[in-house]
Design goal:
The chain is of the alpha+beta class. 44% of the residues lie in helices and 16% in strands. A 5-stranded mixed beta sheet has the order 1-4-5-13-14, sandwiched between helices. The protein has a 4-stranded antiparallel beta sheet with strand order 6-9-11-7. Helix 2 packs parallel to helix 4, helix 9 runs parallel beside helix 10 and helix 12 crosses helix 13. The chain binds uracil (URA).
Length: 445
């Protein structure tokens, strides 16, 4: 099929045939579609959308553009996890060892930070020596021996997504439900999991700003996974405020270790427990949510999950001593305390602006390939709901390059709102799209 006919069809709002979608994905993978043709079709999809069937075909074609990992030699149900991305979202780094300590096998291929959102791989690379680029053989061996492994997507997994994502990033075509859903699920279906727990972020710091859009994305992801024979469920969680108190790379690893030692921030710990509970259930390591939650809490309280993290770091070439001494993580040379200008209560802390401030300090990248300062970041000393006195430190900015500070401070200042009265903290988990339908925890979703 000619590229121009496929582009015209979508431009005019037609649904694409399976043949057209296969032709597009084949052309992207073998390079026979020019970037300008691919970009034109991507923009047409952003503007005209895709129905559920087209989205499922697109996902399938992208997933089949590369290798599917076979983990059948490892006994048990393999449960993957994926987040659509947020600020301070370090859940995977805690959750993989927690679930593995409960007997779940967790194959996990992660991404890098882009824009204001952080990436699991960058965070892990702040651990001295840590390798994220393992071969598929190393990945499989580690899953059999340790039960979890956190690596980068190999070149053979969904190469069509790699090519498409690079173009979407520079053509304003990231924010599209069918494109996000097919991108996420093409990789997840190739990863070798039999079940998936997804975390669809919603709010100022997420791709999906509105609950209705997050819910639609969650439904689409669950439907694609289930149709492909992978038991899939998705939580919709709030990303108006950064998760936890650390935003950056090394500072987030230190916070992960805190959670595994039992004194991490309440929001992060609660999310790890909820998602971990469902991973344990889907792996059939417990008969009920209550039993699964008890296992997750025990893995945290006994130190078993912390030991898994130590093992994971060791197997991936990192310095396992960071678990006992986070002081071995890279530390920024300079610090700036942003002080409260008035007394009252923190009522908002904009995740988007905090994410941008962290990038301004060097903790993230503006465009693919930029170097990241692994020790730069922000420690949030006050979060919404907490009282503050004028002169208190609201947040601590850690950095190495003084020329970066002013831009970061300007963003951070705008992010925090202090008012006379505290406002009730909204729920962290907004909804859950599961096999038997949906449970919405917040009215109006
Ligand atoms: N994460 C992905 O992997 N793809 C997207 O399109 C958005 C978030």
């Amino acid at each position: 099929m000619r590229a121009v006919d496929i582009i015209r069809a979508k431009r005019d709002g037609d649904a694409l045939s399976r043949e057209a979608i296969d032709s597009f994905v084949g052309g992207v993978t073998d390079g026979s579609w020019a970037d300008y043709q691919t970009s034109a079709l991507l923009m047409a999809i952003v503007l005209k959308g895709m129905n559920a069937v087209e989205t499922a075909w697109l996902t399938d074609a992208m997933s089949r553009s590369g290798e599917h990992v076979n983990l059948d030699h490892i006994p048990g149900i393999k449960v993957g996890k994926h987040s659509t991305g947020g600020v301070g979202d370090k859940v995977s780094i805690v959750l993989a060892p927690v679930a593995a300590a409960c007997g779940v096998v967790v194959p996990k291929m992660s991404g890098r930070g882009l824009g204001h959102t952080g990436g699991t791989l960058d965070k892990l690379e702040s651990i001295p020596g840590f390798r994220v680029a393992l071969s598929l053989d190393e990945f499989k061996t580690m899953l059999a021996e340790v039960g979890c492994c956190l690596i980068s997507q190999t070149a053979t997994i969904a190469p069509a997504d790699k090519a498409l994502y690079a173009l979407r990033d520079v053509t304003g075509t990231v924010e599209s439900l069918p494109l996000i859903a097919s991108s996420v699920m093409s990789k997840k279906l190739a990863e070798g999991s039999n079940a998936l727990v997804l975390d669809v972020k919603c709010g100022r710091g997420a791709f999906m700003k509105r609950p209705a859009d997050a819910r639609a994305l969650a439904r689409s992801l669950v439907s694609i996974g289930t149709t492909a024979g992978v038991r899939t469920e998705a939580f919709i969680t709030r990303m108006d405020v950064p998760l936890g108190r650390a935003v950056g790379n090394a500072v987030e690893i230190a916070e992960c270790i805190e959670v595994l030692k039992g004194h991490g921030p309440a929001d992060l710990t609660a999310l790890v427990i909820r998602l971990g509970t469902r991973m344990v259930c889907l792996a059939e390591k417990a008969r009920s949510d209550d039993e699964a939650e008890a296992k997750v809490r025990a893995a945290l309280a006994s130190g078993a999950a912390l030991e898994k993290l130590r093992l994971l770091i060791k197997w991936q070439g990192g310095d396992p001593a960071v678990v006992d001494d986070p002081g071995r993580l890279p530390a920024a040379a300079l610090g700036y305390h942003l002080k409260a200008e008035r007394s009252g209560y923190v009522t908002a802390l904009d995740a988007l602006l905090i994410g941008r401030a962290a990038v301004a300090l060097g903790a993230g990248r503006d465009k693919k390939g930029d170097a990241v300062d692994l020790s730069a970041g922000i420690l949030l000393r006050k979060k919404p709901g907490e009282p503050v006195t004028a002169g208190d430190t609201l947040m601590e900015l850690r950095y190495n390059d003084p020329s970066r500070l002013d831009a970061a401070v300007a963003l951070a200042k705008q992010a925090a709102v202090i008012e006379d009265q505290a406002v009730p903290e909204p729920a962290l988990i907004l909804g859950w799209v599961h096999e038997n339908g949906e449970t919405m925890f917040v009215a109006g979703m």
